[in-house]
Input
Amino acid sequence: MHDILDLGRFPLDRPESADWAALVARCREDLARDGMFNLAGFMHPDVARAAADALEARFASEAFRHEREHNIYFLKDVPGLAPDHPALTRLRTSNDTLCWDQLTGSPMDRLYRWPELARFLAATMEREALYVMEDPLAGLNTMSYREGQALNWHFDRSEFTTTLLLQAPDAGGEFIYRTDLRSNEDPNYEGVAKMLAGADPEVRSLTLSPGTLNVFKGKNTPHRVGDVQGGRARVISVFSFYERPGVAFSEDERIGFYGRAG
Output
């Protein structure tokens, strides 16, 4: 993995070392303070750029255009909320997606299958273990956002989300988030409505560089991607891990997210 990752700065291959323990401790501190941690240069930037370049033609010919209107929950109805509640403001998302079965042999595929990544992430999140999905489409996705496209406000279904930026756009495409807006006990619908109205001073923006591994608490931290501007797309990979093995989407979920069941 040395050919694609900076394992000198980020020693995921040495889990018994003091350097590995120090990195885990640093990431835990960042998660507790900011709801995320970032490892800039985790993947060699030239490898990230080459991976994005290699996918450009495939995005043009093979990707699924995920374009939909939705609310922040990606749900048709939310119990206890009237359909016109401002927390259910309609939003628009558009991106092009390549699935795991279209990324075989890529640096991202190698990284996702590497057991030391799951071991490291489990340690940072203080979990006993994490597992890759047993889903040929959903485990690893790479998304492209071209000019005018964006991923709008949403909460993730999993507690943590792991991404790797491969290519930054000319402008826009920043990662915008609001840490811990809700909790498992309090949905904070009024706070959600306030944020969607642009009136939450705690909303933050982050511009990532290619090769950065970003891990954040997406279940209770709403987030979005700013509108991409310019001729260069924003290209990012998303890695899905779960605390139990064997997780897979249903056929209906695959069709909804990717336009095909397999």
Summary: The CA atoms of residues 30 and 228 lie 27 Å apart. The longest helix spans residues 18-34. The chain has a mean pLDDT of 95.
